[in-house]
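Interim report, section 4.2 (structural modelling).
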Amino acid sequence: MFDLIVSKYNYWIYITLMMIGFYAMVGKKNLIKKVIGMNIFQTAIILFFVSTASKKGGTLPIIMHGHGAHAVNAASYINPLPHVLMLTAIVVMVSTLGVALAILIAIYRKYHTLEEDDILKFNK
Amino acid sequence: MMLQAPVLIVVIPLMFAFIAFILGLWKKGLCYPIVLIALSLSFLATLQTLNIVITSGTIHYRLGNWSPPWGIEYVIDYLNAFVLPVISFVALMVAIYSKKSIKKELPDKIVYFYCIFLLQVTGFLGIVVTGDMFNLYVFLEIASLSGYALITVGEDGAPFASFNYLIFGTIGACFYLLGVGYLYAATGSLNMADLAKLLPNLYGSKVILVGFSFFMVGLALKMALFPLHVWLPDAYTHAPSSVSALLAPLMTKVGAYVLIRVIYTVFKPYFSIEMLPATTILSWTAAAAIIFGAAMALAQTDLKRMLTYILVSEVGYLALGIGLGNRNGLTGAILHILNDAFMMLALFMVVGAIIYRYGGRRISQLRYLHKKMPFTIAVFVVAALSVIGIPPTCGFFSKWYLILGAINAHGWVFVAVLLVSSLLNAILFFRVIENVYLEPHDVDIVENHDMVVSVEEAPLTMLVPILITGAGLLSLGVLSGKIISTIIQFAIPAGF
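Predicted structure of the assembly:
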């Protein structure tokens, strides 16, 4: 069991971070804390994708003086595709954060609070 | 030009979103015609694609001529060729409809509204047109983000409802992304057709199972399947009328489409049906959704809120058809994507028109309205009959196929659920129709009569799309046999 944790520690960190973020999104009553939780949640996913790409002893996926006769040995290069996917995902996450903060400003202007309980009371 | 039709479907609304924004800053009045032009062109492009698919089969469009599985590929087969015109038609109708209601509800945000409106449509069309799992995620987020923005500008409770939607929507999208990650880690591919080829050898793997469950939960959140529907009623009640009319018919249907894609195209039907109890779980949740949605709708006094709960119940129909896992059930589900889009479009547009002219939307306030808004209320009645499932309206035919599917699957509980829900829908809508048409038996309601006196029929830009949709409800019912024989029977994924 201990070996399983140590040898795959990156995945355990991803799961822990994801659960922390998930808890904050669902359990916290303050809306800013929910947004922070959302960010942690999304960052955990980036960590997951990037760690699926990494290899022990892998190098940059760049062929020096390219188009040479030597074959590309996939096992010795870090897979670049998940990194590229995550660049797109980061853009999506930043825009989600932007929209979330804009909505929070709209909420604050209306209720003068960001506590969920107070807002629910106000709505009744 | 015609060869490029698949990509034009997405590019036209995307480019016009920016054109509308820039020209709109210069002259506000230009936005509306530009949006109409963009969506008409997009609608023509989708019809052209449907035509190509019917005459010469599945289209593979390589973006930038990179061959799959490395490049992103747009694949259009019968299933998405069928869903695409539905989306662009609904969007076009809502765009025509939105002119007056946006002028009243968001007078100083017209330009931004139309820009985001087009981005929203881009997102929906992109989700449906793409053949790449990650590309689908990006479009899903484009659609969701613009959805959050559009809902926020609604009435009083809208920002808070929209924030809740954002939290749930982000969880859903992130789960979908994790699912993509797990499949990629196991297969090294993101292309749907390629995944369908690579996955069967790995069906025993736990990675695939986890990825599959992430997809199911993520998509259930996005399409608001009970019990993950909690964001929907608030968000769609408080959104501006035109936004509810756009999102309610489309977001849930697009979710259902992606669910069909993932369960039956990316994964083989025998995996989803036999190796996992996924479809069984889906059918039972769907049955719970149908009953819960209808029961909650009974408890509402606000007409728009009642419709949102009916929408929750309609999502149940779609999921039930998908979950039954046989030919008739799936025919019903795919036909219901079309029919339900029209029904919800008609209902939400009518409610928007009532709010526009009359202000109130409590069911008890609607008395005598048929004298003042005869056409609008008539379309409401047609749509109501369609939701209940009375021939010749289109709702009857999809429900018929769903019931046939339930009988084929020997799911007698599901047959009972479908019949009971028809009954509940009948009670729901006759409560409204009675309130509108029949003589008051209460003294205080008579006062309403004076309130209604000043009301007129909805303005022409609202009335025309409402009437077209109403006519559509009837003609789709009459044509449903032809639609099934020319398109839907080929849209059903291989393996049935």
